[in-house]
Design a protein that fits this description.
Layout: H1 21-27, H2 29-36, E1 45-48, H3 63-66, H4 83-94, E2 97-102, E3 107-112, E4 115-118, H5 129-141, E5 145-150, H6 160-163, E6 168-172, H7 178-185, H8 194-210, E7 216-223, H9 231-241, E8 245-250, H10 260-276, E9 283-286, E10 309-312, E11 317-319, E12 333-334, H11 340-345, H12 366-385, H13 387-395
Parallel strand pairs: 1-4, 1-10, 4-5, 5-6, 6-7, 7-8, 8-9
Antiparallel strand pairs: 2-3, 10-11, 11-12
Helix pairs in contact: 1-12, 4-5, 9-10, 12-13
Length: 401
């Protein structure tokens, strides 16, 4: 056992599988060490925003802090809604392969992009339905692990045959009843959309069984002072619909904070779900720890994760991460006008790359925030004590796989 294992101090080993940053380190061991040694390889994952336009209006949307969603002039151009533009991006990703070092056997191997996730910062991915369904189909058929973050309102029957090819879908629900859903996600309008989302999940879950799909159906829940007491009843509903992970977060911007009494009630409901509902098929996962606002603030000095996870927004431009896409924002180049591999190979030569993270928002995605802190510590260990010591530090930490 290693005394004073620094790596252990910066890892949340209470999170399962891919939610845990240690899992990321283990799965991407050689790719990460190549980065530590200054060798750029294809990113492990690319996040794509197919649309800058959304059909809902969530009160806490982080996109409002990146660009003013109410003003189309402030949104990035919706170029990936065009099928031909999406094709150029997809081809660039599929064709990007590069030789790097395998640190397990000290031999060279070919690296390529392994995962693509579709989401939005100001937009709903399924608004660009034709383009995203093409991309999911093409990427999945070429062996990439594909996922999507969506509000679920547009996951209609005609999309299911393609959606079922993905590895996962995360559906943002954030409310236990129509009234709260309308207040939080529809700008107060009673559009009665929550039941529609439930029906879409049920239909997708039924089709998953029929077609023997491996699609992992997850639900996201941004907990706040309006919905803190609806967690348990919603969890029961979701379990019955065939949802796997029920992911709990608080809003990144910290605008909809709960008071101490509300936080305590939320904790009780989460514990009730864990006690009565958690099993091999269903699990609640606390991405954010309730009441800890420090976890949202950027807590690292060097950003390694942007070399490992790429970001392409709705305008087709490659950005440092998904919190940058806005008019006149910081970007590298256009993956529509230029081959993605050529952009990525020269990432460190772009002037903006020398300014990261100083040009970044003070808030960071929870997974990337934790992972960057872990990688910062891992880099220090690697450079000062070597690869074997780093591996020992990593291997002695246990987590739910």
């Amino acid at each position: 056992m290693i005394e004073n294992n620094e790596l252990k101090e910066v890892i949340r080993n209470d999170l399962p599988g891919r939610f845990c940053e240690l899992d990321f380190l283990k799965r991407n061991w050689s790719r990460i060490l190549n980065i530590f040694d200054g060798n750029i390889l294809p990113p492990y994952e690319i996040l794509i925003h197919p649309s800058s336009i959304c059909n809902l209006y969530c009160k806490w949307c982080i996109g409002n802090h990146v660009a003013n969603k109410q003003s189309k002039d402030e949104l990035v151009d919706n170029n990936l809604n065009d099928l031909e533009n999406m094709k150029k991006v997809v081809y660039g990703i599929l064709n990007y392969k590069k030789i790097g070092k395998n640190y397990e056997n000290n031999r060279n191997q070919e690296f390529k992009v392994e995962n693509v996730s579709f989401s939005g910062i100001t937009g709903e991915p399924m608004v660009s339905k034709e383009a995203i369904l093409y991309a999911i189909d093409k990427l999945s058929n070429n062996g990439l692990r594909v996922g999507m973050f969506t509000n679920g309102t547009l996951l209609t029957e005609e999309t299911h045959s393609t959606i079922l090819k993905m590895a996962y879908v995360l559906i943002s629900i954030d409310a236990g009843n129509e009234s709260t859903y309308s207040k939080l996600k529809c700008d107060g309008r009673n559009l009665k959309m929550l039941n529609n989302v439930f029906n879409n999940i049920k239909s997708l879950s039924d089709k998953k069984k029929i077609y023997n799909s491996d699609l992992d159906i997850n639900v996201g829940y941004i907990i706040n002072q309006y919905n803190y007491n609806e967690i348990y009843e919603l969890a029961k509903k979701l379990k019955g619909l065939g949802v796997h992970y029920f992911r709990i977060k608080t809003d990144i911007a910290s605008e909809m904070l709960m008071n101490e009494i509300q936080v305590e009630e939320a904790r009780k409901q989460i514990e009730k779900v864990k006690e009565l509902l958690n099993d091999e098929e269903f699990e609640i996962v606390e991405i954010h720890r309730l009441g800890d606002e420090k976890q949202k603030k950027r807590n690292f000095d060097k950003c390694f994760i942007h070399y490992l996870m790429g970001a392409i927004s709705a305008d087709g431009k490659v950005y440092p991460c998904n919190y940058h896409p806005k008019k006149n924002g910081y970007f590298y180049d256009s993956a529509i006008d230029k081959d993605f591999g050529k952009i990525w190979d020269n990432l460190m030569k772009y002037e903006i790359d020398t300014k990261i993270p100083n040009i970044c928002p003070d808030r960071c995605d929870p997974f990337k925030n934790r992972t960057n802190k872990m990688l910062e510590v891992a880099y220090k260990i690697y450079k000062e004590k070597g690869i074997e010591y780093l591996k020992e530090c990593m291997d002695e930490i246990e987590y739910e796989q």
